Amino acid sequence: MERNQQLRRQLASMRQSLFDQGHLDEQFILLEELQDDANPNFVEEVVTLHYRDSARLITTIERALEKSPLDFNKLDGYMHQFKGSSTSIGAKKVKAESTQFREYCEAGNGEGCLKTFQLLKRDYATLRRKLEAYFQLARQAGPNEIACRPK
Amino acid sequence: MNLNNDKGSMSTASSSVTVSDQFPAGLRVLVVDDDPTCLRILEKMLGTCLYEVTKCNRAEIALDMLRTNKNGYDIVISDVHMPDMDGFKLLEQVGLEMDLPVIMMSADDSKQVVMKGVTHGACDYLIKPVRIEALKNIWQHVVRKRKNEWKDLEQSGSVEEGDRQPKPSEEADYSSSANEGNWRTSKRRKDEEEEIEERDDSSTLKKPRVVWSVELHQQFVSAVNQLGIDIFHTYAFALMYTTEAVPKKILELMNVPGLTRENVASHLQKYRLYLRRLSGVSPHQGNSFISSHSQEPPYGSLSSLSGLDFQTLAATGQIPAQSLATLQAAGLARSAAKPGLPMPLVDQRNIFSFDNQKLRFGEGQPQHMSSGKQMNLLHGIPTTMDSKQLVNLHHSAQSLGSLNMQASAHGNPSGQSSPLLMQMAQPQSRGQILTETSGGQVPRLPTSVGHPILSNGAAGAMLARNGIGENSRGTGYNSVSQTSSVLNFPLNHSAELPGNSFPLGSTPGISAGMSTLTTKGGFQEEINSDIKGSGGFMPSYDIFNDLQQHKPHNWELQNVGFAFDASQHSNSLQASVDVTPSVLVNQGYSSSQRNVQNSNVSAMGKPIFSVGEGSEHGIALNVGQHLNSLLVDNSTRVKSERVTDTSCQPTLLPQHFGQEDLMSAILKQQQDGLGPAENDFEFDGYSLDNIPV
């Protein structure tokens, strides 16, 4: 019990830090609210889905950025997809960067695209790492122990 | 309650509680999104709302699902950006085929995209990330849609996808028809039955269903565009035409094996409804009027008498004095009719030019060469340019004659039939205009019937515009507009009956007789010829009558609708004018007609003319069509209102000149091309005849 409480405190602080550092926004909370008996691990499920799907997009964008005349239309399309997915899990920083990326696409700023994409990849990986750690801890804490706002 | 089926491309996650009487619980939602994360979240959210969720990660699959289970969903939520099929396409297809409410969603919150969604018929647009609060309310769209459907059913009688209440819809439909004075004929009912049948098809599989794939639909749309059918605004017309001539033509243009006219007709109907929904036109517009008028004697509502004349003629089968007068007006005195309306004159010229070729062809007149070529060309499809040029040429060629005509008309404001004849005689002496004109009239009717069917609506719109533009002349034009709508009837009818075009086509023979008469040249003789001509015309009118008898009420409907449009909904009409050009531009042979009309426009009045010249060809075209209808009107109407607006003429004359300048310029450019031009015309005439067949 003692240990479990400690775990939960740790979990809560991890979660809070994700918000404090601007990695997550309220969409994440909305996902948490969707979690119920039917889907006790809904948030993790969705986040896993997101990373599985978005990894493909990241690779695609990376390749597209290697082409010599950049196809900004395509890049914008990919990033739009990526943004939609990131937005839906509340990846705040990544979302901001993908927005920035798309603006550069519109402006035809290849340099800006590349730079932003590096930032994006970094934050994307960071969030992934942190979330994975968080969910792992949450599993240790047991079901129903994930920080849930009272409904 | 097992919801973790996220691996399948689609899966149904029915939430545990589906209590249908606890609406909106159990609302059947189809979610389409290529992004698995979003899809999963939406599924969960919708499930939390107690909706019955089906998810799908591909638009094509979603469409298939919707088709195979037509009544299986209440609402569709679709992402905008999807790799296999654009969300807007899905939206359009759904709007066409099942008429379900569709909610679009995207992370893209730019105004253009949202606007695009709305204009494509999305009932809502959600910005990602979608919040559950937004989803809790989506059932309202279902309710709203059904409510509107009921309205539609009750008031327009058009059967949309009744989804869950096919039976009540039928009943509502029929009862309403009774209330509205039987304006819907048995034929219409038959259509409805067909539609209902079709709805049941998915379950009963009575006949092979045609799946309107995106490609097929695109073919359909391009065919429609080619025909220049303005389904959008003239849905009253479309109501009629969905059943006969237009679907046939579309079918021919599409050239898809296995597709039947009924398929096309049904799809056209849906397409029309779909467009109408997009346009936001209230279903009441035309209908309410109809219902009100239905109580009156059928034609009484039509203020203009031309319609009456027609009727009487047809009914009696005799040629009373009036009818003679009318006929004369129609035949020779068209120009005379113009006192009121200048443009008709020009139109007549054009029309004549069309028919003239035929006549000349038959008579072997020297002016126009290559008769043999004409024959060949008939089969070919003239390019827009050619036809246009041709038209212009003709117009210019005859403009001289028309000038004289106009002058005389100008001088004689009285509007008696005899003076008219006199006027006509003058041109004849100059050239063969008379003969041509006489011959041309009959054929002309079919032509107008064929292509412009829907253009009539556009015409109405234009009229409204005119009225607005020229306040000073407003009254004069208004009256015209009404008449025009009246005139439209006969044309429409002919179009509807497949057989009609033929009799009309046969009239050329009659017209030939007329021409011979006219060749005699004397004024008095001309009168005689006129009479004969009228006799010849009679048959055609009779045909019309038959048509009318078959569908008397449709007639009325249309008329009423148009008059209504012209007078009251001027604003919407203007908007419609803008829209139509795009539709019309694509047309094949009809373009030639339009061009002709174009020239007419210039003659007609300043405002219109400026429109034609300054902005776009397309707009001008619309105007032109309108003019055409006017022309027709004049011919019929002449008797009653011949002398109405003499005041307009002065202005008209100068303008006409201006147009001539234009024409002359064009002429110079295209003097070489006379031969081909004629050919094109020929083609037009023929094609027109063919259409209704």
User: What level of helicity do the residues of chain A show?
Assistant: over 70%
Task: Quickly give the CATH architecture of chain A.
Answer: Up-down Bundle
CATH superfamily (homologous) name of chain A: HPT domain
**SS field, number of helical segments of chain A:** 6
Number of helices of chain B: 32
Rg of Cα set of chain A: 17 Å
The main sheet of chain A comes to: none
What gap, in angstroms, lies between the N and C termini of chain A? Answer: 25 Å
Average pLDDT of chain A, rounded to a whole number, is 90
- Strand proportion of chain A: under 5%
**Largest binding interface between chains:** A-B, 26 and 26 residues
Beta-sheet strand percentage of chain B? under 5%
Biased composition (Basic and acidic residues) (chain B): 161-170
Function (chain B): Transcriptional activator that binds specific DNA sequence.
Family (chain B): Belongs to the ARR family. Type-B subfamily.
Keywords (chain B): Activator, Cytokinin signaling pathway, DNA-binding, Nucleus, Phosphoprotein, Transcription, Transcription regulation, Two-component regulatory system
In short:
With 151 residues, chain A is mostly helical. Chain A is built from six helices and no strands. Chain A has one domain: HPT domain (Four Helix Bundle (Hemerythrin (Met), subunit A)).
Report on this model:
The complex is a heterodimer of chains A (151) and B (693). Chain A is mainly alpha-helical and 151 residues long. Chain A has helices at 2-20, 26-34, 42-66, 72-89, 92-107, 110-141. Chain A has one domain (2-141): HPT domain (Four Helix Bundle (Hemerythrin (Met), subunit A)). In chain A, helix 3 packs antiparallel against helix 6. The model of chain A has no long low-confidence stretch (mean pLDDT 90). Among the domains of chain B are: 10-137, 3-Layer(aba) Sandwich (Rossmann fold); 303-587 and 606-617 and 628-647 and 666-690, no CATH class. Chain B has helices at residues 36-48, 59-68, 87-97, 111-119, 132-136, 139-155, 166-179, 186-204, 214-227, 235-241, 245-254, 261-279, 284-294, 306-316, 321-331, 334-337, 342-363, 371-379, 384-411, 417-430, 433-450, 455-469, 474-496, 501-520, 523-550, 552-568, 570-585, 590-604, 606-615, 617-641, 648-670, 674-690; strands at residues 10-14, 28-32, 52-56, 75-79, 102-106, 124-127. In chain B, helix 9 packs across helix 11. The longest helix of chain B has 28 residues, at 384-411. Mean pLDDT of chain B is 50; it is low at 1-20, 157-206, 230-243 and 281-693. Classes of the chains: A mainly alpha (151), B mainly alpha (693). At the A-B interface, helix 2, helix 3 and helix 4 of A face helix 1 of B.
